[in-house]
Amino acid sequence: MADALSSIPAAVLRNLADKLYEKRKNAALEIENIVKQLAANGDHDKIKAVINLLTTEFINSPQANHRKGGLIGLAAATVGLTSETAQHLEVVRGDFIVFFNKIFDALCKLSADSDGNVQSAAHLLDRLVKDIVTESDQFRYGISYVQLLNRASIVERRKHHEVIEEFIPLLRERMNVLNPYVRQFLVGWITVLDSVPDIDMLGFLPDFLDGLFNMLSDSSHEIRQQADSALSEFLQEIKNSPSVDYGRMAEILVQRAGSPDEFTRLTAITWINEFVKLGGDQLVPYYASILGAILPCISDKEEKIRVVGSLEILLQISSEWEATRIEALHWISTLVNEYRTEVLQYLNDIFDTLLKALSDPSDEVVLLVLEVHAYIAKDPQHFRQLVVFLMHNFRTDNTLLEKRGALIIRRLCVLLDAERVYRELSTILEGESDLDFASIMVQALNLILLTSSELSEIRVLLKQSLVNPAGKDLFVSLYASWCHSPMAIISLCFLAQTYQHASTVIQSLVEEDINVKFLVQLDKLIRLLETPVFAYLRLQLLEPGRYTWLFKALYGLLMLLPQQSAAFKILKTRLKAVPSYSFNGEQLKKTSSGNPYQFLHHMSGGSHTAEDGDVVEEEVQRQEEETKRPHSNELNVPRSFKRAS
After folding, report:
1. What SS3 class is residue 510?
2. CB-count exposure of residue 246 (10 Å: 0-12, 13-18, 19+)
3. What is the pTM of this model?
4. Distance (Å, rounded) from C-alpha 346 to C-alpha 343?
5. DSSP assignment, residue 281?
6. How many angstroms separate the CA atoms of 12 and 33, rounded?
7. Closest C-alpha to 316, from 338, 295, 342
8. Contact 171, 207 (CB under 8 A)
9. pLDDT tens across 264-322, in order?
10. Over pLDDT 70: what percentage of the chain?
11. What residues form DSSP beta bridges with 610?
12. Cβ neighbours of residue 541 under 8 Å, at least 6 residues apart?
């Protein structure tokens, strides 16, 4: 203060605070000359003292005339520091930069002044300072700073570097101010500095990014627009920059993605979307936070936020919003596929939720859940666990089996191998104690087996049960559990072409087996026999001499059907369609030595043909008895199948 008072006469200071503009103007001219002389002499301490005096005693004064005088005095000091009349041009401009932070701080405060004249004067000074800064080579950082290294002393380099380093924290602090005039002032400065090619504002973006996002929710449309424009420019620069600190900014964006303000959320999600594309491995440590921020936005009531927020992420599977659940499952599926070992460590935390998601009303959600389960169930342990839990869910939730059973089973067959899935299901059902559920489940599995394109390979294999060891093994594997439903076992025998055993099963049915539910299942089977799946069976009707047991099985079913039923008429019509000449034994001699049934023994006249060989002779009959026994005990009827069929 003493240095300033010794440099500026008292009369000049009095006039600077006078109510008359002319006196303030003359005093400012005096200050300009004084500062110009001090700059020429390199007296930095006195220049700093003058600026401090103008700031503390005038600009910060509660009296309007003092503030006006301080402004015009500060402007005069600025002109004095940047005068182009002296041969010390580069030096004095550099001197101005040294005092930039103090001048900037003073301008920031004055931009919010309640006096209109003060604001007008502050704007004029603001434009002047901006012009000076954009023209000064020494207010550069980055490339220009490298140039500065080649021509300045170490002390000067440190001095200018410190000015930059001090300015950014000052800017960051001021970004928290809510005054609309100050916000406009700050955004204006950020835009100006960023427009100068050699000023690396992008490097300091993490320091004031949060402040810019905060302005997006300002009540002033103009401020929101200015902040959005600045952010858009920075985002474009990020796309074109080879080196960006994504991590620090990602933390800010995650917080802003949860903002109650719609525009702020949209902008934050837009940035995150670009960061995910550009950030690569830099963002791996932040993925958990990013996903946690993104998922709620996917179900945002604002359509734009939903669209932008639909990134390729954790545990929002239970969200009430379908879009959120779908994206959560997409991310879990990706994580399980790419980082299986790591994710399985947390399997217990999500497994129950994943199982419950199978009951989701959305088919898309269910399919994605099954995809996740398939990734998890690649090893035997988790595969068995999945099937056991799935059966438990079917048992406890009849609606799940009824509405989603076919979808779930078919999709699992595609993802995990159909034969593997059916073998495991059969093994579990074989020991099922709930006989009603076992019967219903087997009927469902049988219908899927006979009708789904996903299981066509299994059907082909089962058709070869008489000649292919793999087909025989699969048939035997399914047989025990299929015995929970007589109609299912008959269907399986038809599919495997073990017609003699099919006829035996039909003959073994007793009165209690033939109830309404049985007839409904029989009706379905008769209609299925008319589908392409059983085309081979219908063609075999042309060779009754070779497929005697097929005829006996079909006529056995016909005898069980009510004569007025549609199924009776369908089957009767089919059997009547067999041409009479096909019953001529002389015309039924085999001509192909490569026929897979050449080992079968054909009986002449009205005798039957032993078509099944030994496929079901021992193993199948043993399994049949073991499976039928609990059903018989339950109903106290010997050799009876499940009544609920």
Report:
1. coil
2. buried
3. 0.54
4. 6
5. G
6. 12
7. 295
8. yes
9. 988 998 898 888 778 766 776 776 677 767 666 655 555 554 444 443 344 455 666 77
10. 73
11. 601
12. 547, 550, 551, 574, 575, 578, 582
Q: Where are the beta strands (DSSP E) in 188-272?
A: none
208-255 pLDDT per residue, tens? 999 999 999 999 999 999 999 999 999 999 988 878 888 889 889 988
pLDDT band at 476 (very low <50, low <70, confident <90, very high): very high
Give the residue among 400, 397, 425, 401 at the shortest CA–CA distance from 413: 425
Which residue in this structure is represented by tokens 């690396």?
200
DSSP state of 361: S
Query: How long, in residues, is the chain?
Result: 645
Q: What local confidence, expressed as pLDDT, does residue 640 receive? A: 33
Q: Whose CA is closest to 48, among 91, 90, 109, 7?
A: 7
Residue 292 φ/ψ, nearest 5 degrees? -60, -30
> Is 499 within 8 Å of 533 (Cβ atoms)?
no
3-state secondary structure 424-445: HHHHHHHCCCCHHHHHHHHHHH
Please, are residues 104 and 167 in contact by the beta-carbon 8 Å criterion?
Answer: yes
d(CA 553, CA 504): 8
Tokens describing residue 42 = 């390199």
Distance CA 318, CA 303 (A): 21
The closest alpha carbon to 229, from 181, 273, 276, 187, belongs to: 187
| Terminal C-alpha separation, the chain | 103
Residue 27, phi-psi category: left (phi > 0), alpha (psi -120 to 50), beta (remainder)? alpha
Residue 601's SS3 state is strand
List the structure tokens of 433: 């104690």
Identify the bridge partners of residue 199 per DSSP, sorted by sequence position.
141
- Which tokens sit at 594? 């490569």
